[in-house]
Structures are given as structure tokens and as C-alpha cells.
Design a protein that fits this description.
This protein is an alpha/beta fold and 839 residues long. The chain has 4 domains: 4-209 and 420-477, FAD/NAD(P)-binding domain (3-Layer(bba) Sandwich), CATH 3.50.50; 228-416, no CATH class; 484-597, no CATH class; 630-838, no CATH class. It is 39% helix and 16% strand. The strands form 8 sheets. The chain has a 6-stranded mixed β-sheet. Helix 3 runs parallel beside helix 4 (71-83) and helix 21 (594-623) runs antiparallel to helix 22. The chain is globular and about 105 Å long.
Length: 839
Amino acid sequence: MAGPLADALLPQDILDGAAVRDRPNLFVIGSFDRRITFYSQQVRGLSLVHALKDLGYLNANPRIAVVGGGAAGVAAAAAAALVTESQIVLFEKAGELLPLQSTTDRRRLDPHIYDWPAHDTTDPIADLPILDWESGSCRSVRDDVLVGFNDIVVRLAPRLQPRVRHQVTALNVVPDGYQIEFTDLDRPLPAPGNGLREQFHIVLLAVGFGVEPIEPVPTIQSASYWTDAGVPVAEFAGRPTPRFFISGAGDGGLIDFVAAGARDFDHAGMIQLVSSHPGIAALKPALAAIDVLARARDAAGARFDFLAAYNAELLQPLSDIGLVAAVAQQLRPGVRLTLQTQHAELFEVSTATLNRLAAYLTIKAIDGDPQRTFRHLQCDAVARIAPPDPAPEVADFWLDCAGERVAADAVIVRRGPRRDVVRAPFAAHLVSHEANHKEWLTRHGEATLVPKLSSAARTLFREAARKADIPLAPRLQRLAAHQLPISVQLLREAGNIRWSGAIPAEQLLRSWSEHQPFEIILPDSPEYLGSVAGAVLRVACHSNNCRLHAAPGQWSQHVRALSLESKHAEGMAMPAIVAGNPGGAAQNPIMLPPDILARRIHRSLDSWLLERLDAHLQPFFASNTDPGRPINLKIATDLRAVMAATWATWHASFTDEPVLLGHFLRLMICAVDDDDNRDAAQILVGPNKWAVILRGTAVALAIAAAWEATSPKGIRPGNLVRLRNGDSAWAGHGCAADMINGDEMSLCAASFMWQTQFVILVVKSAIEVSRIAERPFARVDTDQPGLSETAGSGPVIMSISRDFIDAVAAGLVELRALLAAVEARHFEALEKTIVKGAA
């Protein structure tokens, strides 16, 4: 595959593709191109202005009209204003620029993903010399681009004039260029022949494609792709078999097909799941080869069967790497999908590879589940029909597709916008342009699919922006601001803590989630701050960018004892403690009792850790995916499925009960379960110990899945409870601590006074006690000190051993057998101990 420089068209090539051949100085940007994205339209606008500059069209500073305030028009207008001294007028009939992207947060814009699986296509940065942005929701991208555009308008005023609610109604040829007729929609409509007119030397038509019809199928309204209402929502009506009918095989149709099938569609999550799944890189050559073959067939006038090619080349590898299973995890229970297309082939060559693959994976995930169904229908037209009488099922919609009757709860129609409407004022000038442009596309082939901005164009606009003193792009401003520390202060006042600074206390989390630097000012001693001191230290001890501004004599020994010299963990860092007060943290003060403030901080941190656990566990459940191998276990499919269901229940409980979550995490990292060690334990719960918390949680889930009726508990003793048939509840302690009261866990676990009936240990090595060296996954000897209620027989102690590793790899039945053997040995020993005691 050719590199970016080879793919970039020459200025004359770009001009040839945009020029209307029998209309000098009239150019069209993107309206007749293929593979239209926000980014590609920006590149087309910038590239055309660079070509005009390079070839001398702008030497005389011509007056330029840009018609259309979408991505291409905004980019072209801003670029032209930077490299000429003449006036640039941007016409947009909507009330704001970039109107399509103004109403949705659930649709996502990515700059390069359309070209996936080529190199660097998952790069989230557009990397444009002006109007730059990073991947995000439509609304956030639009906001960033408009900030950049308005910066140029302000700096270059009055050279660049955006005119919103100005509708261009006609374009007339005049001796020195073109006369544009337009209507100011904020003024009374003029009498015929008395409309507003202005003359321009050059006209750039960036009218785009218009919007979709409100009623693409008679009596069926379909919300626009560019609204949040157009995105299928999570199931809320309790339908056991939600039925979706999707019409259209373009990118919009494929994305909404995937969205309709998903339990709760996350556009960014879908992109991440498919493009970054472990093992997908090895399949990129096959995907690219299929695309090349499909485009060759298309150029020859033939259609291509992607479904057959994917089945033959990709289905087995996609299943082997667990991607089909991962997609199946995301599906709505019982969903029924119908995809209607105009052609017999399910997928179109014009669509993005990623969208095609996501739809294919959805289909295959449904095929493997008898509770879900997929049907593909081919017909030229869909019609809404009256319900049959009697109706075999209740449905909001009944549709006919070439004689096939379909029942649906929701209908999504994605057949594209009405291009003829937006082109109408210019139709007389564009009679031959579509055919000419098609010939140009064929001539330049691959270079037109995903346009590249040349290095010369980048240099031109970057230098022009620098000379005009245009501010950095918003993303770069945020990045720069992110490097500046945020100052906050905690000060004791009577019975309360006075919190002040630029952010609320819950946003200390950003030190973990965004690596935001913080300066935490602590004028009082840790004893005077009470429980808040522990919450603040928890943040700082797991961060490389938090400094404590406090009296070292008051704080150093306290902090050292809880971090570097913790009796419960190894490898904890001690945050920097600097004397003095840097200031800048007196704003927005609030007064809160210490316990309430500490609770707010801890809960925000716990919640973030929970979601990080969930983000790792979900792909692990689907396919044993374990980046970095913190879990480091291969677990059989049937056992992972039960673990996933168990985790869903635990996750819901943790989300609903923050106290339960905090207790579970604290005891997972600390063996000592008492109030005197609460702060010492809670400080350990954070990113530095996340890997062992994750592994401990995974092992506990495996045992809970096999034991059943095992769940987290929020009060001591322990952090787990097992409800046994015919017996009282067993308290359990899932623990991944490094040490117990300063001694290695592996050396003292057998003799520690555990307060629960069972203990699940996840330590760096097996329990190493001379009396029980290398004893696998079983309870300790009966003379080990233990619980009074078991007369000294001790709890069931379980750790990761070869028996456990082999059992989880074999499956649910094998793990249940192992646990049953462990219980049997426990009760046998308990009986002997009771008899011995009685004697």
C-alpha cells in the first residue's frame, strides 16, 4: 500500500476534480465524492484552497463566496481568509455553522477510522494545521472546530464574514465572475425580482448532501441519523424479543444495525472493541485484500459478495480470537434484526471496512444464539401495511418487502439525504459535472478514497495561522492546561473542613483518571483533619503528580507509615511533602464535616476503580482477553459465562451500594479487618494495587460461580458471604494482600487469626509454611489456630495452586468437584477436632 505522500494528489489534480469545466472559477467541494466523513470534507476544503493558492488563482486577492457552512465550507472559508487579503463570505441557510453535528452526543466522529485497517487509522487526532480536533462526540468535535473558526474570524475581521440564515437561491454568470442571489431569512421576504445580490470572482460550492427526508417510507417517520433520537436506545419497555427493521446498506444503516442489536450502543466502544481486539492485527491483511478485490470488481462494473468472502476467509479466525463472542456479550437479549437492502449482496463496497465488519460480527453473534434472529431481505421498496387479521403477534409496524411480511417494534430507514434539493439552485451549472467528476475519480482511484493533505498544504496553513496569531486548537489548549497543576486546600474550622480551590473534592479523582497534577495544601496536622487526611493521602499515594504542601515535621512520619512502611502492602510510593503554601486555592470554599468530605472522595475513587475493573473483566469473560496478564489464568468458556453473570449482579450491587464496594475493595487488599486499621487499609486501594485487586476479584468470581449463592458483604467479618443449603451463612474473605502486619502473606497466612469460615488468598506465590509447604488449594492442619466456633479447626483456606489452575481451565464441573473435595476435607477435619476436644 502506498504511503501518505504518494497518496496525496498534486494541486492541479485537486483543481481538476473540483472545477466545473465550463464554468471558470466555480468549484465544487465534496458533493460528488465518495467516502464522505467530517475529516475528509475538511481535507478537501483545505486542499482546494491550497491548490488555488499554489496555482495563482488567489494572487489578485479575488472576492470569494463559499456556499455551505458544513465541514468543507468552514474549512475552505477559514483557509482562504488566511492566505488572501480579500473578503471571504460564507453563506449558510441554517441558524448556525456545522448544523448537522449540533444535536447529537451519541454519534461519534473519528478522523481516520474510515481508512481502517490501514496504519495509524485508530489515531484519535485529526492533526490538521487549522480547525484541528480529536475524536469524540459529534457535538464536542463541532464545538472545537467552531472555536478555532471563530478565533480566525476575530483575528482577521472583517476579512472573513460568516452569514448564517442566508439562503442562496440562485447563481448567475456575470462578466467578472458570478452573481449570487440570496435571502436573509431574518428579514421579510422580498418581492420577486428584488432579492439580495452580491458579486464574487470565485465561488466554492460546499453544499454537501442535505438532510434525510422526514418520512422516507410513507407513513413511517425516521429520526435523522444526526440526532440522538436517531440512535437506538437501550431496552426499556421490557420486550422479551425486541424487533428492529433497518433499511439501507450504507454506513448509516450498518452503524444503526449494530446499534439496534446492542444492549446499550456505545459508538466509541464499538470502534474500540473491533479495531483493538487482541488478535485483530493478524487479520488486517486479509481484510485489506478483500477490500482491494471488491474495489476492483466495482471498477469493472460488477458487484462483490462480502458476506461470502468474510465467511470463507475471516469467520474462523474471528471466532478463534474471541471477537464473535465479545460482540455476543454486547447484544440485546432476544433481539430480532431484519436488514433490508436494495441488492442481493448484503454489504456495499462504498462503506467503511470497520462498519462492515461490525455488522458482520453482529450477524454471526446472533447466528450462534437460538434466542436471537437475523434476516436479510432484498427489495426495491418497502411499504407499510395494515396488520393482518388476525395478527399472529402484536407489533407497532407491519411492513411488506417484495411479498415478505415483517413485524417490527421499531423501523430505522437510512437511505441517504436528498441531494437534489441542495443542488437545485446550481443545477444549471452542474449539468455535466457529475459525469466529469466520476471520470476524475476513476482516473485517480485510491488517492480519492481517503484524501490526504499534502505537506505543502500543511506548511502553508500552519505558517499563515502563526503569522495571524491564531490561538492553538482547543485540544492543544486543554493539553497545555492539563500540564498545569490544580491547587486545592483543606483547612479545619471548628467541627468542619473548609475545602477550597478550582474543583470540588470529587474531582481529585482526575489525578488517577487523567493524571492531572495537583498541589494539595494542608495547613493543619493529619490528626486535626481526621478522616479527610486518609482520603487525601489515598489520592496522593497512587499518583505521580500530587504534591502535598504541609509541614514535613507533622506529616512525614504519618505518611511514611501508611505508604513506604505500610504493614499491609509492598511497593507503595510516598508522595512529596513540601513546606509552604503556593497559594491559588482560596476560591469556591465549602464547609463540610470531615466524615462527609472523606466519604465523597473515597466514593469517587471507588467508583472509578469499579469501572476500570469492569472494563478489564468484560473482554476477559468474552474471550480470556487479559492485556498485561494481571489475571494470568485461562478459564474455560462455560465457567467464564457464569462468572460474567455473577459479576453483572455484583457490579449492580456495588453501583447501588457504595459502602459495599468500599468494604469489598478495602478487604481485598488488606487481611486485617478492624476499625483501627481502616485508614491504613483504605489508602492501599488504588491504581498501584489495581492489578492484584483485579486478580483477587477474578479468582473470587470463579469460586463464587462454582459455589453459587456467593456474593459480596458490606459488614465484617470478611467481604464475602456464601449461603449454604441446610447450613448457616458462611462469611468469607477474598484477599490479595502482600503482607499481614508486616510479614509476608505467604509465610503467615496459615497462622493468622482469620475471622471468617473461608478465605480466598491471591498471593504472589503459594502459601509457604514449613508444615504445609506446597499443599495445594486446601484447608490447613487442624491444630492451626482458628475460629472458636470450629473448635480450632480453622477456616477453609484456598489459594491459587496447580489444582485450581487446572480446574478453572477444564471448566465449571471440574471446579465444582474440586471445591466439593475441599469442603469434604474441611468437615472431616472439623469432626475429628470435635471428637478430639470431647475426649
